[in-house]
Amino acid sequence: MAPILGIWASSKAVAAADTGAMFPLQVVTVGAAGTSTVEFTNIPSTYNHLQVRTFVKSAESGSSFGTVEMKINGNSLTKMHYLYANGSSVLAGVGSSNVVLNVPTAGYTSIFGAGIIDILDYKDTNKNKTVRILDGVDTNGAGEIVFQSNLYATNTNAITSLTFTISGGHNFAQYSQFALYAVKGA
Q1: Which long-range contacts does 32-36 make (Cβ < 8 Å, 24+ apart)?
Q2: Stretch 123-130: mean pLDDT, rounded?
Q3: Quick one: which of 77, 74, 65, 35 has its CA closest to 135?
Q4: Residue 4 domain flag
Q5: Total domains, the chain
Q6: Which of 54, 58, 63, 70 has its CA nearest to residue 174?
Q7: Across 19-43, average pLDDT
Q8: Which domain holds residue 94?
């Protein structure tokens, strides 16, 4: 009798707690003309965290790397810690920068950089915001990966907008994509 009871019990669905469902809020895909700025505005304050998933390239000529900067509510990030590796060397450091992604330039014809940007407790008005980033690119056997955290300490206001630009005033290349997600739970 016990095996039958065990089979019956294991076939019953158990409602799981919703601990971190993600909800797509907005996706921006760069068209043929390129663009110098990607912006998310009017971000709702009904979730716990934000995540931006990126697939990005700079339209700048040459085969090198460009950098993507992010501003929160129009303000700069204040502190940065990073760990960088490129296959032959590893660097770690601190600084003050708006740079959140390293991306390939147009000389790498079919290569884009990928990144994930987590913005924790974005609506909490009682503390400064922490930004956590993992990004990388493989340029046919060479490349780099970066793990970093940034602090947004300009004020404790809820985050309502994110603005991304390429350093040096260059455009994002066609097919670059930014997808903004909201995270409901932990």
Answers
A1: 32/174, 33/174, 34/59, 34/171, 34/172, 34/173, 34/174, 35/171, 35/172, 36/165, 36/166, 36/169, 36/170, 36/171, 36/172
A2: 94
A3: 65
A4: no
A5: 1
A6: 58
A7: 92
A8: 20-116+128-183
User: Which range, 45-49, 50-54, 136-140, 144-148, has the best average confidence (pLDDT)?
Assistant: 50-54
Please tell me the distance from the alpha carbon of residue 18 to that of residue 96, in angstroms, as a whole number: 37
Which structure tokens are listed for 126?
């009682």
pTM for the complete prediction? 0.86
Beta-bridge mates of residue 113:
56
CB contact at 8 A, 26 and 148: no
Contact predicate 18/184, CB 8 Å: yes
**Percentage of the chain exceeding pLDDT 90:** 69
Q: How far apart are CA 152 and CA 165, in angstroms?
A: 17
**Which tokens is 181 given?**
């997600």
Using one digit for the tens of pLDDT, what is the confidence trace for 68-94? 999 999 999 989 999 999 888 999 999
Residue 34 lies in a domain: yes
Q: What does the block give as tokens for 184? A: 């409901």
Q: How many residues does the chain have?
A: 186
